[in-house]
Design a protein that fits this description.
832 residues; alpha+beta; 6-stranded mixed barrel; 25 helices; 55% helix; 17% strand; elongated
Length: 832
């Protein structure tokens, strides 16, 4: 049977019988391979860039010394490991004292990214990967203003003295530490022992920084995790970048989604092409049966042929896909995330297996149908093969695809939503296709002649027409869903980093300094986002009981907000970067609340950490005094908005009896930097936090992520167009035969052309309309369950997509057959 299968394969190839299925398989596998490999490389490259904000690929934190065993294991895995410490202490200069956060560096720092060290605040510095020399330290700009010092001055640090040798303009960790009360300094580890500031019970955060090849570091982290206790923590690149965490997570979800939809597109193309292949082999199978072949032998013959198609097609598809993705990487190297990582083996294997699984799953039912052809079909062409129950094969194919898709994406939720919505969409499309088909036939009776002819063509083979609408509808659904998600993500990122986003923050502004500060800002034409009062307090009780008694030990350990002071404020209006998710914003005269308690608004993070709800009471310790607040509402905060945000907000004047400092933010250009020195001269206790360097880094990564998403979306659309073309090719010969018969019977070319275009346009309108309906369902599910976005209807696409689908299918379908119609009718009939 194998030799006969090879002969049949050669014959079918020369006759063009197998080319459509072969083309559909190659397009499907090439699309899956290219999309999977590119998304995998871009996703890993984005992770590499995010690690620059952390200073390493991973940071392992522990209150105890880092075990030597961990360092030795890292070396054995060819990883770069560096140790350090974070500790809080007081430094001084003369009669000025300041609490600082000390980063103690053992080796060169950072492992990823760079430090920018300047000789004065608000100036451009040199980028380094190093540590301060012994006897020297680097400080954040606000240390200089707080201690009224400059580069070159001597600072008392424990039992020793250190010289300020540089100002930290930017560096890893600043994105998550800008609002810490204690400003940061960096010292050499040799100076820590001399200073003798650590004693028994000192709170030290020991760290190990890790960098190296992805496979080696992931294997190391897998080895390390079982050895960690509840006080030790592993932080990856994204976790060290709060401003990017949500954006990168959504971008990765989109890239995973792009990889998965390519599998569904492949299924659509292969299912249609396999159906065409099997229908064209019914006559061959009938002859084989007449010559004495058994059903089992016919099965074997076509299974061998299917295996040949699969192996050759998948191999070529993988090679073409790899070539396409490499060409694209080279072409767009300057806009894609850098450094671009090497090709991973997993997406190639998954794409190849997916191609085989999709081919077998969607082609086997059609191929099994061939063997069921009755021998009498040799004489009676209308006889069709007995129906084969292919639901078991389809179920196995879908199950195998689900496993492969999970292997590729790592998210059962994403795979589940995509598969369930696609299956529902398939059923809905077939049902609605039948309904629209019937309505279209009724409307067609009142339409021009060409439209009636096109509907007549569709009416002649209703099952065949519904299958075409289903295939086109699924393909357009995938393409539209990808486009809508991409558009929503880009809008979200543009809102996150608008051009006028605050890039400087002022904290510790005193009440008597607010007027003078406002005068300086107005003189320099600088607009603020508002000046907010700020009081520091610690949560002590939940509903009158001690917090550590109400929560379990594990819950209390995880509720970090209970173990540190929070920035509290009061305000009248809901902040711009906040969304109310429960309750009402300062509803007056609400009898359900305790009139003696102050109303407070909490973030969703506080609600989840402390297990509280609206109406519960929180007690705060503020400078030794206690104040109780009753939860009136819960807010969802957009932490990556670069706006002043607060875990807890009191109602207006809720903390008016407590001394407060003020915080404000504004956007200024580099040319306006001298104004900051003017502020410090008049208000030396004010702390200025520069975010412009951090925002430039964040914006650079967001721009690259945006381009990556745009590019992948475009590639998915191109893959979808290729699949649509494959579906049109699978149905091409039926239209050629129909048009040729009309030509033979005397029909004029304009009539044939208008009739075929009407048929193709109606297919486009029907499938486009159904694609919009199912896209709204899929996109809403992904927005809510995966991307954490707000679902909304896209009404404009209800008009645009059916029209675009009609134009595309009409143009491509017509150009695919118009050259054939120029040939003599007898020649075309012989070929078909």
């Amino acid at each position: 049977m194998f030799k006969m299968a090879i002969k049949n394969f050669r014959r079918d190839w020369k006759a063009g019988e197998v080319k459509v299925l072969f083309f559909a398989l190659i397009v499907a596998v090439a699309a899956m391979t290219a999309i999977s490999v590119i998304t995998d490389r871009i996703q890993r490259a984005m992770g590499e860039q995010a690690s620059e904000f952390l200073g390493a690929d991973y940071v392992i934190s522990s209150p105890r010394e880092i075990p030597q065993e961990w360092l030795l294991e890292a070396q054995n895995n060819n990883l770069i490991a560096a140790t350090g410490k974070n500790v809080s202490t007081v430094i001084s200069r003369g009669d000025k004292f300041q609490l600082v956060s000390v980063r103690v560096v053992d080796d060169f720092y950072p492992l990823k990214g760079e430090l920018e060290i300047a000789v004065a605040p608000f100036e451009v510095g040199n980028k380094v990967q190093a540590k301060p020399d012994q006897g020297k330290l680097w400080v954040e700009p606000r240390v200089l203003s707080l201690l009224e010092s400059k580069v070159g001055d001597i600072i008392e640090f424990g039992n020793t003295e250190l010289i300020i040798s540089g100002v930290v303009v930017s560096g890893p960790g600043q994105a998550s530490e800008v609002f810490n009360v204690a400003p940061g300094i960096i010292i050499n580890s040799a100076d820590l022992a001399v200073a003798d500031i650590l004693g028994p019970g000192s709170r030290v955060n020991n760290q190990m920084l890790l960098a190296g090849e992805e496979a080696a570091r992931e294997a190391y982290i897998k080895w390390l995790k079982p050895q960690l206790n509840e006080t030790q923590r592993i932080t990856g690149g994204k976790e060290g970048t709060p401003a990017l965490q949500a954006s990168l997570s959504r971008a990765e979800s989109f890239l995973r989604l792009a990889s998965l939809v390519s599998v569904i597109l492949a299924g659509v193309a292969i299912a249609v092409a396999a159906g065409r292949f099997s229908r064209r082999h019914y006559d061959y199978a009938a002859i084989y049966r007449c010559l004495g072949m058994r059903i089992r032998q016919v099965h074997q013959l076509y299974l061998w042929q299917l295996a040949l198609i699969g192996l050759i097609g998948v191999g070529l598809g993988v090679v073409i896909g790899l070539a396409i993705q490499q060409l694209i990487i080279w072409q767009f190297a300057n806009v894609l995330p850098q450094p671009m990582v090497s090709i991973g083996l997993v997406p190639i294997i998954v794409s190849a297996f997916s191609g085989l699984v999709v081919l077998l799953g969607f082609a086997l039912p059609s191929f099994f149908q061939i063997a069921k052809v009755p021998p009498l079909r040799v004489l009676r062409k209308e006889l069709m093969p007995l129906a084969v129950s292919g639901w078991i094969i389809y179920a196995l194919a879908i199950g195998s695809m689900a496993v492969l898709m999970w292997w590729q994406s790592g998210s059962w939720l994403l795979v589940g939503i995509l598969l369930i919505v696609s299956i529902i969409a398939f059923i809905v499309i077939r049902l609605f296709a039948w309904l629209i088909f019937k309505i279209g036939i009724w409307l067609g009776k009142r339409s021009p002649t060409s439209v009636r002819f096109g509907l007549g063509q569709l009416k002649r083979y209703p099952a065949y027409t519904i299958s075409q609408i289903t295939a086109f509808g699924l393909a357009f659904m995938i393409m539209l869903s990808t486009y809508l998600i991409r558009t929503e993500l880009l809008t979200e990122w543009q809102n996150q980093m608008p051009a006028d986003a605050p890039n400087h923050f002022l904290i510790n502004v005193q009440d008597y300094e607010v007027e003078a500060l406002d005068t300086i800002l107005q003189k320099n034409n600088v607009e603020t986002s508002g000046i907010y009062p700020m009081v520091r307090g610690r949560v002590t009780r939940l509903n009158g009981e001690l917090a550590n008694e109400v929560l379990s030990k594990e819950e209390y350990q995880q509720a970090r907000a209970l173990r540190r002071e929070l920035n509290l404020t009061w305000m009248k209006d809901l902040p711009a970067a906040n969304k109310l998710v429960e309750g009402n914003w300062w509803l007056q005269d609400d009898e359900s609340f305790d009139p003696s308690a102050v109303k407070i608004s909490i973030s969703t993070e506080i609600q989840n950490m402390m297990k509280v709800k609206i109406g519960d009471k929180l007690s705060f310790d503020i400078g030794g005094l206690s104040v109780e607040g009753q939860i009136a509402n819960v807010r969802e905060i957009q932490w990556d908005s670069f706006q002043p945000n607060f875990f807890v907000i009191f109602e207006p004047q809720g903390l008016k009896d407590f001394p407060a400092s003020y915080i404000t933010s504004f956007n200024i250009a580099k040319s306006q930097k001298p104004m900051l020195n003017q502020i410090l001269e008049q208000m030396p206790t004010v702390t200025i936090i520069e975010l412009d360097k951090i925002m430039e880094q964040v914006q650079k990564i967001l721009d690259q992520v945006t381009l990556a998403v745009e590019f992948i979306m475009l590639f998915v659309l191109l893959a979808g167009i290729a699949v649509l073309y494959a579906v049109l090719q699978a149905n091409r010969e039926e239209r050629v035969l129909s048009a040729t018969l009309l030509k033979t019977l005397g029909a004029k070319s304009p009539f044939i052309r208008s009739g075929l275009i009407a048929e193709l346009a109606l297919l486009g309108i029907f499938s486009g309309l159904l694609a919009v309906i199912c896209s709204e369902l899929m996109v809403s599910s992904l927005y809510i369950n995966v991307l954490d976005l707000t679902a909304k209807p896209h009404l404009i696409f209800w008009l645009v997509v059916p029209l675009a689908a009609a134009i595309f299918i009409s143009v491509v379908g017509w150009f695919g057959i118009k050259s054939i119609l120029k040939q003599p009718a007898y020649q075309v009939l012989r070929q078909t």
